[in-house]
Every structure is written in C-alpha cells, then in structure tokens.
Specification:
The structure is a single chain. This protein has 472 residues and is an alpha/beta fold. 27% of the residues lie in helices and 28% in strands. The protein has three domains: 87 residues, Nucleic acid-binding proteins (OB fold (Dihydrolipoamide Acetyltransferase, E2P)); 197 residues, Vaccinia Virus protein VP39 (Rossmann fold, 3-Layer(aba) Sandwich); 127 residues, OB fold (Dihydrolipoamide Acetyltransferase, E2P). It has eleven helices and 22 strands. Strands 9-8-7-10-11-12-13 form a seven-stranded mixed beta sheet, with helices on one face. Bound molecules: S-adenosylmethionine (SAM). InterPro entries: MeTrfase_TrmA_AS, NA-bd_OB-fold, SAM-dependent_MTases_sf, TRAM_dom, U5_MeTrfase_fam.
Length: 472
C-alpha cells in the first residue's frame, strides 16, 4: 500500500468515529505538535485528561499531575485525542506495571498507577460526575470498601474469581490459542499467567492451556479444537469449574479424555454446545461462602461479584449502613443468586428478592432453602418494565439496588412508592448512577454516604456504594 492510500484510510477512520485528522493550521494550533501538556484528572475510562485550547484532551497512559509530551491523533470541536509520547515529569503515584503483557492485554488498564492512586482517582471521577448531575459539591465520601487486610487481595492483585477466555485455532501452529483479547482488537493474547486472577483460578487456567493442547495431536482431535468458541473459568478457595462453549458437539473420546484430566485436578467440567443447555459433564455445581457459613450455589454462567473478599466487605457494609433490624421488610432489586438477600434475611423479618433471569430466581430460592432461610421470597420480574412498579407499591422498610451497567432509571423514578427509610445503591457505572441519583433525590431522599468499592483493582472499572435516606 502506498503512503498516500494509507493516509486516506486513516482520514476515513477518523471521519467514521466523529473525529477528523487535525490540520496544522486549525484552531488547535497543531503546528506545535507534539504538545507539552499537564494532565489534570483521570477520566472514568482510565485515560488522563488535559486541556488543549479549552477542549478536553484524552491521553491513554497519562496520570493526573504529570507533565507529558503527546501527539494529537484526532480532534473535533469538543474533544481531542492524543497519544502519549513521553512522560516528562512523572506522578509520584506512577509505578512500573508488574505484568509483562500490560501493554498488549486489554484486561488491566491502570497497572501504571499505584493502588492508593487508583482508589483516589476513581473516587474523584465519580465525585465529579455526581456533583455535575446533582448540582452539589459536597458528596459525603466515606472510606473505600476494600478486601479484608488479612488476605493477599489487599494489594489489588490475585483477586479475580471469574474470567472469560477467547479461543482461536491457529492453523499454522496447529494449536488452540487461549487468552484475553488485546486492547481495542480481536487479537488473542495467549495467557500463561495473569496477576489479577485468584491463585486457584491461575491453576485452572494452566490446566485449560495444558490439557487442550496436550491431550492428543491427531487430526480428529485437532479438528475438535476448532469448535471451541470461548471458555469461562471460575475458581476461588471454595471451588473450581471450567465451562467450554462449543460451536458443535465434539467426539465422545475427546470428552472422556477431558473428563479424566479435569476430574483428577478437582475441576468441574461444563459444556454448552451452540444454543443448547448448559450441561454439567463431570464434577458438581459450585458454591461460594459468605460470612456466618452461608453458601451460595452457582453455575458458570451466573452473575458473580468477581472479587470475593471485597464482595464480603460490601455485603457487610450494606447490612451495617442500612441498619437492618428484625422488624424490617427488605426489597432486594436485581438480586441475582441472593448475594445480598440471604445475609440480609439472617437479620431482617423478610426479604423480597427480584431478578429477571428465571434460572437465577430459582437458584436464589433454592439457596435460601438450603441455608434454612424461610423468609426469602424470590420473584422473576423485568425491572425495566412498568409492571415492576407493582413490587414497589407493596412497600419496604429498606431497599437494595444493584443493577447492571444500564442502571435502574425506572425504579429510581418511582422509588418513593416503597416508602423505604433507607436505600443502598450498588453501581458498576458512574454515568447511570449519576442519572439515577438525581431521580432518587427528587423522590424525597438525601445522600448520606458515598463509598468507592475496590472491586476491580488494576482496571478502570468503577464500583460505588451510595446510601440514601428519606428526608424527615
Ligand atoms: C450487578 S448484578 C447483581 C446481582 C446480585 N445483587 C449480586 O450481588 O450478585 C445485576 C443483576 O441484575 C439482573 N438484571 C439485569 N437486567 C435486569 C432487569 N431488566 N430486571 C431485573 N434484573 C435484571 C442480572 O441478571 C444480575 O443478576
């Protein structure tokens, strides 16, 4: 390809994304590029933000307080995108990323910032979004919710209990490549070691890699490997399981060899073939434990909070902050397998757990039964549907909201109908949290505390707990 045609491809790319390749003489005065910039803050996507000609300039890999040299790669009237060329004056919070594939892998994007800096920057980012949406600058921040100090997860590594691995059969190497997708690409980064995964999950990962490529090298086996779409691995101190998503069925002798290898390592084996059912091939359904001996059974495709130690701290914090008493009826919305409902039911008079996925509703009810809790009522309901408002009208003393990234807009607009004194909102998306908080305040509540939750250390993902109390 000639240099000319290469350039025109790039221009097209910028037009498609809403950005254009800036010209040297435009308002940005880009004949000065590379630019020297002072980074002001960290965006909620983990990129440093500086100002260029009054516009926000986003720079991957740059940290607040740093003086950097950067080259503009795209711009429009409101924003500029720049590539980091050199850090001239590093932040004192900058560290060498310990992972050898940090630059390639799309998994962690904040390993160059120390753990304390990650918490501070994430809090500043949520604070800015809430302040803007609510028109106030006095959000009452409490201490972040972190892993228990006694566990090795306190440093923000070795915590993750669930990952999805992509698969691709490389014909030239006659090998199944298993790993994470590269940043902004479909390329698979082969994964031998991942520093954020739980040690038990690391062991399961090694088993997957070795087993698949070492079982046989004959043509029929290699053909089977081409049918692997992706793999879910779940493991922590309580259980280990691996679920293979297959495009088509694979031969019985291959399955039997996999069963032997996984059974001898104590890992439960699951398959889902095409759109068929999730099937336990060998081993048993897993469960994780919460304080007080509570056991929550799950299958590999169920939603699980990824960081078990931080999850335990979060569950305890929600119960404490809600000040649940034995007289309380609690509404747990977006309740999953009962991660909050079950520990809350130990203290409260009753819990209504509402969740959209039928399998999880059934498991939540079963989990309650197996933990001898008779005061949990698990119901199936799409909480984005107007019908859901009927559950609010039944009333509650306390409410837990733990929605997916889209948030809980409809519920927030009508939350006052519950008459609840206190609400705990657990959010994995600061944007929908800021939007929904405005609705909750309009329903007659105040924010009494905000806490950052250290659920996703080393990555830019942000989890927040916001507590609301009904105005007197
Ligand atoms: C962030 S998870 C929280 C689950 C649970 N509270 C926990 O701690 O494990 C969000 C849950 O909301 C459920 N969900 C997603 N969309 C929903 C909807 N429209 N209505 C009800 N539940 C929904 C998901 O299936 C998932 O279980």
């Amino acid at each position: 390809m000639s240099r000319k045609s290469h350039r025109s491809d790039k221009t097209l790319k910028h037009r498609k994304s809403g950005f254009r390749k800036p010209k040297a003489a435009d308002a940005l005065n880009l004949d000065q590029t590379p630019l020297e910039l002072t980074v002001e803050s960290l965006g909620y996507d983990g990129r440093g933000i500086a100002r260029v000609d009054g516009r926000a300039c986003f720079i991957e890999g740059a940290l607040p307080g740093e003086l950097i040299k950067a080259e503009v790669v795209a711009a429009n009237n409101k924003r500029v995108e720049a590539k980091l060329l050199k850090v001239l004056e590093p932040s004192e919070l900058r560290v060498n990323p310990p992972c050898s594939i940090f630059q390639l892998c799309g998994g962690c994007d904040l390993q160059h910032l120390n753990h304390e800096g990650q918490l501070k920057s994430k809090q500043a980012s949520v604070n800015q979004m809430l302040s803007r949406s609510l028109g106030c600058d006095d959000i009452p921040w409490g201490v972040p919710i972190v892993a228990k100090a006694s566990e090795n997860t306190a440093t923000g590594f070795g915590y993750r209990r669930k990952i999805r691995l992509a698969c691709y059969f490389d014909r030239s190497k006659q090998k199944l490549l298993v790993g994470f997708r590269a940043a902004k690409s479909k390329k698979i980064i082969e994964l031998e070691e991942c520093l954020v995964v739980h040690p038990e999950l690391q062991a399961a990962l090694e088993l997957v890699n070795c087993t698949l490529n070492d079982l046989h090298q004959n043509a029929s086996y290699l053909k089977s490997l081409q049918l692997f779409a992706h793999i879910e691995c779940i493991a922590d101190q309580d259980a280990r399981s691996v679920c293979f998503r297959l495009m088509k069925p694979i031969p019985e002798d291959v399955i039997q060899d996999m069963v032997k290898a996984f059974a001898s390592a104590g890992v439960s084996l699951w398959f889902r073939v095409g759109e068929g059912p999730l099937t336990l091939i060998s081993g048993h359904e897993s469960e994780y434990q919460l304080e007080g001996g509570l056991k929550i059974a799950y299958t590999p495709e169920d939603f699980l909070q990824v960081n078990p130690s931080v999850n335990q701290s979060l569950v305890s914090e929600v119960i404490t902050q809600l000040e649940i008493t034995e007289d309380d009826h609690v509404l747990d919305l977006f309740s999953g397998l009962g991660n909050f409902s079950l520990p809350v039911a130990r203290v409260a008079k009753s819990v209504t757990a509402v969740e959209a996925i039928a399998e999880m509703v059934d498991k939540s009810q079963l989990n309650a039964k197996q933990n001898r809790l008779s005061n949990v009522n698990s119901v199936k309901q799409d909480l984005f549907d107007e019908d859901a408002l009927g559950w609010l009208d039944q009333g509650a003393d306390k409410v837990i909201l733990d929605p997916p990234r889209a948030g809980a807009e409809l519920i927030s607009q009508h939350i006052g109908r519950t008459g609840a004194k206190k609400i705990a909102y657990v959010s994995c998306n600061p944007l929908s949290l800021a939007r929904d908080s405005k609705e909750i305040l309009a329903q007659g509540y105040d924010i009494t505390q905000a806490q950052l939750i250290d659920m996703f250390a080393q990555t830019s993902h942000i989890e927040t707990l916001l507590m609301f109390e009904r105005k007197a």
